[in-house]
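Case 171 in the screening queue. Each case pairs one protein sequence with one candidate compound; here the compound is zinc ion. For every case the pipeline is the same: read the inputs, emit a complex structure as tokens, and attach any notable structural observations.

Predict complex for case 171.
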Amino acid sequence: MRKPKPPVPEKRSAVQAEAACVCGAVRLEIDVPAVWAWHDHSEASRRAQGCAYATYVGSWKSRFRMLAGEERLTRFEDRKAGTVRSFCAACGTPVLYERARSPAIVNIPRALFASRTGREPRYHMNLTEKADWTWAGEPLGPLKGYPGVMWARPKRRREPLPDSLFSPEEA
Ligand SMILES: [Zn+2]
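Case 171 output:
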């Protein structure tokens, strides 16, 4: 009888954080803590994720594992930008964002994780491309007659006429 093989040493750290797409077909995990977490205000990420800005958790690829649904991922390679974005073909959730400038790191939208990732998103990148309609925490008040709807009061007293090209504040 053969001797049982010694157990293969686990590469996983003690703690993992699991992420999933909205339909649940694609699941992955990273070892915690992640490398870092950052807000991406680039126009490309804004479009790709359909949001004001994207918040990513960066993980070493060696500390990242697909758990399910890898075959469901569809890749979009932007050769000019040197980026690859992978999303779930079933539900459209953006799952992976890889950049040629950081080949050892894979970025995963923070929103895909239900649990903590060991890093707070303290860093902002591509702020020069930030959308001017991004809500930046301005005070909100309830909108009269619409329960559950909050709104930010306009900064200007008088709104410019719809057909005016310039408002005095912008001139
Ligand atoms: Zn999905």
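Case 171 observations:
- The chain has a mean pLDDT of 90.
- The CA atoms of residues 139 and 164 lie 28 Å apart.
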